[in-house]
Write a sequence for this structure.
């Protein structure tokens, strides 16, 4: 008599047995079977790329006009997204079982490649500015902010930098304009403080804010541009708006301890430092 | 070139250098070159003969004195026709021609250009020929004698002039020393800009205005910012003339609109931002935790209101939830029913569906996932079989027996594992 067995069960048995007995998560034999393509995609999902705004904030009241909202990325949510991604082409229990066996590994891959979606897009000219901070993928909680403001529309090229509670700079993993006025930014690590800066390419001359005060910068070689703390000069102007440049140059000369302020030095002082806004988490 | 200084801020290098002045190697006007050659020959008898040959040539160096080539302008700030609050901004113009502000000089050697922002109505503008400009006028002051003798334009060429009140001019025009301070050269790193810009050598000159852009509190004021020639107006405050009005040559001009209450300032907009975590701040625990009620349509056709929370939490939650560890077969498998509140929580169900839909949209990745799973399966089979070959089944080596025994063993193992898993699962629940 001929006999036959259902292949499905044999496969599953093999899977389980192999996994229990010898297969480790980082078995080198398996490495080529996790294409980078999948790892990068999982990282993109973890960074919520492509998730529509209505799913990010379920109600408009969570993000009213002219507001900034800080958040933690829900790991369970993204894990469930990855489950959904793996469900593609799962037609039988065998595939399901493989998914369940490897989902943990796939998630780890996403964590490993979490920087890639941004890093892969950086232009080679900009790579010289790119510095990677080494953090253990396990400890990296993802936090960030959503900003809804006219600022996003008016200031193309806003810059942001965040620090954790120890003052260490956090890496930007994603910074995207979701719509005309809405921007999302996700960092690796827990934000304790945030600085949002005006783009530095649009330099202007003049006083900073309404009181026409400039913060004096150092001009000594090697220390150029450093703000001399506490040293400010007010630009005076007559009723027609003519700024008294001579008086300004005199006042600057006193602070900078030179007899003669050159036009180059004056330009340095008059450049409006890109605007900067700071946010701090309470209790820090 | 004068002294220069690099612009940095908080240690960040902007790739920008300021240079005090970049003067042309030849001034403008009539220049003469003289060459002398000394010849000395010693004759056989020891007699020395000397001779001297001389030659001289004259040439003119001229540049534009009444007009400006538009292509010499690199950028202006505030931008042309810009609207905003520029009350605290000194306008500036950046010129591609690095020596331009020093090509002609006032009688004290200061640059000949100045930037004058004038509100609408403060001056009258018109075009006239250079010949007409140079004629003496009864009703208006123009320093004809101070104009350069040599210039590039023809007398029939048109130039743009502005006429304004002498008192106003004296009030707003930069003083002699100020003009040197308000003019500088700069060197820029252009490598990150367009192809067109990269062709430039990186040296520019900048003229900064000495007057803040005229601004009113409520209505936008239109101002025209003129780049003017200051030849003949070395010391505007000491200008001795009976004329009530003065005339200036405007080489280049652009308009801006400035309004005092325009809250376009970066810092003021930033300060206006309402800062919070992502939630609706109302006296409700669910809302405080980021949940919102949403209409929920079931596959079976019923509808209800369920809770939804997106991936962005207003608080820190450690790790991945246990529920996410076993993959649900459909999105409904990730629905959570809250017995206390008798509400469904559809958050993770939506997440599952979102992951699936996004991945389906990305065909390349969807295909890669299916392919990957197939290869994992193949590999696992191979590994398991080789385990048997190496270990338990070595002695009884017969291909037919091996296959049979391997299968039987695998199945036993599989069933045992399943039982163990179930037992474990029960244990966890208890």
């Amino acid at each position: 008599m001929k006999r036959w067995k259902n292949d499905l069960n044999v496969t599953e048995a093999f899977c389980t047995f192999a996994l229990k007995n010898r297969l480790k998560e980082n078995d080198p034999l398996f490495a080529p079977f996790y294409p980078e393509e999948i790892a990068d995609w999982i990282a993109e999902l973890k960074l919520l790329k492509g998730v529509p705004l209505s799913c990010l904030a379920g109600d408009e009241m969570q993000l009213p006009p002219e507001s900034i909202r800080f958040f933690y990325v829900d790991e369970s949510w993204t894990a469930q997204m990855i489950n959904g991604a793996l469900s593609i082409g799962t037609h039988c229990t065998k595939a399901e079982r493989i998914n369940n066996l490897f989902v943990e590994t796939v998630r780890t891959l996403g964590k490993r490649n979490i920087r890639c979606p941004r890093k892969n897009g950086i232009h080679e000219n900009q790579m010289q500015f790119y510095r990677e901070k080494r953090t253990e993928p396990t400890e990296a909680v993802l936090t960030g902010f959503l900003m809804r403001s006219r600022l996003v529309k008016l200031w193309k090229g806003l810059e942001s930098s965040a620090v954790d509670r120890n003052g260490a700079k956090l890496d930007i993993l994603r910074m995207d304009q979701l719509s005309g006025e809405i921007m999302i930014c996700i960092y690796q690590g827990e934000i304790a403080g945030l600085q949002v800066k005006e783009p530095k390419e649009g330099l202007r001359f003049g006083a900073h804010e309404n009181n026409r005060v400039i913060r004096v910068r150092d001009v000594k070689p090697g220390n150029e541009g450093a703000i001399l703390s506490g040293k400010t000069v007010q630009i005076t102007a007559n009723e027609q708006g003519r700024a008294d440049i001579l008086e300004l140059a005199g006042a600057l000369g006193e602070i900078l301890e030179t007899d003669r302020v050159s036009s180059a030095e004056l330009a340095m002082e008059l450049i409006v430092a890109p605007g900067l806004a700071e946010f701090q988490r309470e209790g820090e | 070139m004068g002294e220069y200084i690099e612009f940095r801020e908080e240690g960040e290098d902007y790739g920008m250098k300021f240079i005090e002045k970049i003067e042309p190697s030849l001034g403008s006007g009539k220049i003469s070159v003289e060459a002398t050659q000394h010849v000395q020959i010693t004759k056989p008898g020891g007699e020395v003969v000397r001779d001297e040959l001389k030659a001289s040539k004259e040439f003119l160096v001229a540049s534009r004195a009444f007009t400006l080539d538009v292509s010499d302008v690199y950028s202006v700030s505030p931008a042309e026709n810009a609207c905003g609050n520029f009350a605290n901004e000194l306008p500036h113009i950046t010129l591609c021609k690095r020596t331009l502000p020093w090509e002609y000089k006032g009688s004290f050697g200061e640059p000949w250009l100045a930037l004058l922002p004038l509100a609408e109505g403060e001056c009258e503008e018109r075009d006239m020929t250079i010949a007409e400009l140079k004629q003496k006028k009864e009703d208006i002051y123009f320093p004809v004698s101070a104009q350069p003798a040599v210039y590039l334009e023809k007398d029939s060429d048109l130039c743009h002039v502005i006429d304004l009140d002498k008192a106003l001019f004296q009030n707003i025009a930069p003083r002699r020393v100020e003009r040197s301070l308000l003019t500088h050269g700069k060197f820029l790193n252009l490598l990150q800009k367009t192809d067109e810009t990269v062709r430039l050598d990186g040296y520019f000159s900048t003229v900064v205005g000495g007057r803040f852009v005229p601004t009113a509190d409520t209505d936008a004021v239109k101002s025209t910012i003129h780049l003017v020639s200051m030849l003949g107006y070395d010391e505007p405050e000491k200008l001795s003339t009976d004329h009530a009005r003065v005339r200036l040559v405007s080489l280049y001009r652009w308009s801006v609109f400035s309004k005092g209450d325009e809250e376009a300032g970066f810092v003021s907009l930033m300060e206006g931002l309402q800062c919070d975590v992502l939630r609706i701040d109302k006296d409700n625990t669910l809302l405080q935790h980021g949940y919102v009620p949403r209409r929920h349509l079931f596959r079976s056709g019923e509808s209800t209101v369920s809770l939804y929370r997106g991936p962005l939490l207003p608080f820190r939650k450690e790790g991945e939830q246990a529920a996410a560890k076993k993959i649900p077969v459909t999105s409904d498998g990730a629905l959570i029913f809250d017995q206390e509140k008798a509400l469904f929580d559809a958050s993770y169900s939506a997440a599952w569906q979102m992951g699936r839909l996004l991945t389906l949209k990305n065909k390349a990745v969807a295909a890669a996932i299916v392919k990957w799973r197939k290869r994992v399966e193949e590999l696992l089979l191979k590994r398991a079989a080789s385990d048997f070959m190496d270990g338990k089944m070595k002695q009884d080596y017969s291909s037919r027996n091996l296959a049979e025994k391997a299968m039987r063993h695998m199945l036993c193992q599989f069933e045992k594992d399943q039982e163990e898993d179930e037992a474990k699962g029960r244990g966890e629940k208890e």
Q: What stands out?
A: Residues 399-429 of chain B form the longest helix (31 residues). Chain B has nine helices and 21 strands. Chain B touches chain A through 130 residues (CB under 8 Å).
